[in-house]
Structure formats: C-alpha cells, structure tokens
C-alpha cells in the first residue's frame, strides 16, 4: 500500500502538470495563434494520437524491462516537455510540442495501470478507480487554475505572458513528479521480469494476439473509446463554446470542466467497488446513456448554470464507464500479460479520444455546434447494443 500511495502521489503531480497545459489553456492558445475550429481540434487531439502509436509498445516494453524503468521514462517527458512551450511561436510548433508531450501519458499511463491491476486482485475495480481519481484531482486543479491565470487583468482575451505563466506552472509540477518518481520508484529493485529479446518479442506478439482474438476485450476497450470520443470533443470545444457563444469568462469555462471532473473523481472509487461486487456491464451501459444525453444537450444551453448541471451529468456518466471498463479488460486478460493488455486497451480508447476533437472540429466547421454534438451523441447511443451483444451478462 505504501508503493500504491507513492504511485498515486506521482500520478497526481504528473496529471496536474499535464492538465495545466491542456484545458482550457490549449484550445485558447491555439486560437491565440490563429487556428480555426478544425485546427483547434487537431491541436487538442494530436497528443492522443501519440498515445495510439506508443501505448501498446510501452506496455509491452514494461513486460520485458520492468515496470519501474518504463514509468521513469514517462516521467522524464512529464518533467522536461513543458519547457518546450516557451519556444512556441506558431501553430505548427504547437502541434509538434503537443505530439511529443503526449509521450508522457502514453508511456507512463498504461504501465502504472498494469502495476495496479497486478496487485489489486479481487479489488481491481476499486483500486484502479482510486488510482484514477487521484490523477483526476490533479486534472481538476489544473483546469480552473489555468483558466484563472488567463482571466486575470486582461481585456480582449489572454495575452502571451499569461500563457507562458501557465506553462511555467506546468513545468514546475512536472519536474516535481519526476524527482519524486526518481526517489520512490527508482530504487535498487531489479525489473519485475527478465526476458531475452526473443522472449520479449514473443510476449509483445502474444499481447496483441490476445486483444485481437478476444471479442469481449476489444468491445470493452472500444466502449471506453466511444465515451472518450465525447469527452475529447467537450475538452476541445466546451471552453470555446462557453467563451465565444455563451459569453462566459475563461475562468467560468475552466469551472465547467472542473465540476465535471469533481463528480467523476468522487464517484469512481465507490462505483469501482460496486463493479467488483455486482458486475461491470450494467454500470457501463448507464454511463453511456448519461454521456450521450449530456453531450447532445450542451449546444442548446446558453447560460452558466444549465451548462454546469449538464457537465455534472456527463461527469457521472464518465465515472460509470471508466470505473468498470479497465477492470473488465484486466478481468479478461490471460496469463497476467497486464502490460501488453493495458497498452492495447489504452491504444483503443485513445483512438476515440483523438477522434473526438478532430471529428467535432470538422463537424462544427461544417454545421455548427447544434449539429456536431448531437451527431456524436447518436454514435455513443449506437455503441450500447454492440456492447450488450458482445459482452455477456456474466462479466
């Protein structure tokens, strides 16, 4: 439990650093650099594309060289990449930095989840949810703090020094995560498993084959991907909708995202424990219904309080899905190949997270918010019968 506590603390600092540089700062910074809706969606989604490319290799690598070494490699990216934002002077440079910054969560995230899944046993849903909730606290603090810095003493929108102030805070927190990780995760312990390179390559292939051959596992991963699609769309365009359409302040836009994270953070451990004892399938379906309904309603709301209530509904839906989906994948993982399995799971749901901002940007540019968000909500609803068909009730 001490190791679990250290892992949670490092995760908190890393997520806080990442959130400061992401929402609502990132879409507003892209606008500051002259990006249109489609380009804003790409800027927000590009770091998730990094996850698609590198989460599976990172998870498989941790099966070969050890969890601690791989996690420390991710923490190096958390600590150093925020400094690169100070040198951004164009939209193209922002895209490059965001792609590289995505390596932090791509490397660290699935490996840390694999560690928790290995030690949790029958409490898998509960401990994975606790670990996620601690990271969510960092995200929760990062969004409104970043928005507050952008909202201080300016007229006509944020200016460059305010963005750089947020990036400086991100750098300090990322370095703190790296230093604490070096102290508590480095140690003298050998890698968890030692394999020759041939054996490691075979394990890598087996992990991929396990995912592709198990329809239940693919579906469970894809369900979180669909939910993440909606979350990614909101992450990119809820701040812009709130500021440019509804007329809210940057700080209020950060609060909208923050309250959604609050309800997710508070609900996940209880829901994860519930999924351990009562099954994960029903919770996932309920979460998809709430996420789809909230997402479809947002562009028809034009005041702070209704938007706030709808974000709370979306946050509860997200908690229902995410408290059960990763644990469901771990339940179905054979031979304890948790690194490869969690890497594959992360790759699949990152496809959804990356496609959300990109698809929403294209749809908003074509038909506006009142067309794009309901269409994405319909896609979420259509995933429910697919999930019920492919995942049996005795999950």
Tell me roughly what share of residues is in helical segments.
Answer: over 70%
β-strand amount: under 5%
Secondary-structure element order, as H and E?
Answer: HHHHHHHHHHHHHH
Unreliable runs, pLDDT <50, ≥5 residues? 187-197
Q: Can you give me a brief rundown of this structure?
A:
The chain is an all-alpha fold. Mean pLDDT is 83; it is low at 187-197.
Detailed description of the structure:
The protein is mainly α. The chain contains 14 helices and no strands. It has helices spanning 2-20, 25-32, 37-65, 67-80, 91-120, 124-151, 160-186, 197-213, 215-246, 250-278, 281-297, 304-331, 338-367, 369-390. The longest helix is centred in the middle third of the chain and has 32 residues, at 215-246.
Key descriptive features of the protein:
395 residues; mainly alpha; 14 helices; globular
SSE blueprint and pairings:
Blueprint: H1 2-20, H2 25-32, H3 37-65, H4 67-80, H5 91-120, H6 124-151, H7 160-186, H8 197-213, H9 215-246, H10 250-278, H11 281-297, H12 304-331, H13 338-367, H14 369-390
Helix pairs in contact: 1-6, 1-7, 2-3, 3-4, 3-5, 3-8, 3-9, 3-13, 4-5, 4-7, 5-6, 5-13, 6-7, 6-10, 6-12, 8-13, 9-10, 9-11, 9-12, 9-13, 9-14, 10-12, 11-12, 11-14, 13-14
């Amino acid at each position: 439990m001490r190791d679990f506590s250290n892992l949670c603390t490092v995760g908190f600092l890393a997520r806080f650093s990442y959130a400061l540089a992401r929402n609502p700062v990132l879409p507003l910074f892209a606008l500051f650099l002259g990006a249109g809706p489609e380009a804003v969606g790409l800027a927000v989604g590009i770091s998730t594309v990094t996850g698609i490319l590198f989460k599976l290799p990172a998870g498989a690598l941790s099966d070969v060289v050890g969890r601690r070494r791989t996690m420390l490699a991710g923490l190096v990216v958390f600590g150093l990449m925020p400094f690169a934002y100070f040198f951004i002077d164009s939209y193209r440079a922002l895209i490059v930095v965001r792609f590289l910054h995505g390596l932090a969560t791509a490397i660290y995230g699935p490996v840390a989840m694999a560690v928790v899944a290995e030690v949790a046993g029958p409490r898998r849903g509960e401990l994975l949810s606790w670990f996620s909730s601690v990271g969510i606290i960092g995200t929760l603090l990062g969004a409104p703090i970043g928005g507050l810095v952008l909202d201080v003493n300016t007229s006509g929108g944020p200016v460059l020094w305010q963005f750089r102030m947020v990036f400086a805070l991100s750098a300090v927190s990322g370095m703190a995560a790296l230093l604490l990780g070096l102290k508590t995760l480095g140690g003298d312990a050998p890698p968890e498993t030692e394999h020759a390179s041939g054996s490691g390559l075979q394990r890598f292939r087996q992990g991929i084959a396990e995912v592709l051959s198990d329809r239940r596992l693919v579906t469970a991963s894809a369900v979180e991907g669909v939910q993440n699609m909606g979350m990614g769309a909101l992450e990119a365009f809820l701040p812009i909708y709130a500021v440019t359409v509804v007329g809210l302040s940057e700080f209020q836009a950060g609060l909208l995202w923050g309250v959604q994270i609050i309800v997710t953070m508070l609900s996940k451990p209880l829901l994860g424990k519930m999924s351990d004892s009562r099954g994960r399938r029903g919770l996932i379906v309920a979460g998809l219904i709430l996420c789809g309904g909230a997402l479809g309603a947002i562009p028809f709301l034009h005041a702070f309080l209704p938007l706030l209530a709808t974000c709370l509904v979306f946050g509860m839906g997200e908690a229902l899905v995410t408290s059960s989906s990763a644990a469901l994948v771990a339940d179905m993982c054979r031979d304890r190949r948790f690194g490869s399995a969690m890497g594959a799971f992360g790759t699949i749901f990152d496809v959804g997270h990356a496609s959300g901002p990109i698809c929403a940007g294209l749809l908003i540019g074509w038909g506006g918010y009142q067309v794009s968000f309901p269409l994405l909500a319909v896609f979420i609803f259509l995933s429910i019968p697919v999930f019920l068909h492919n995942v049996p009730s005795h999950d």
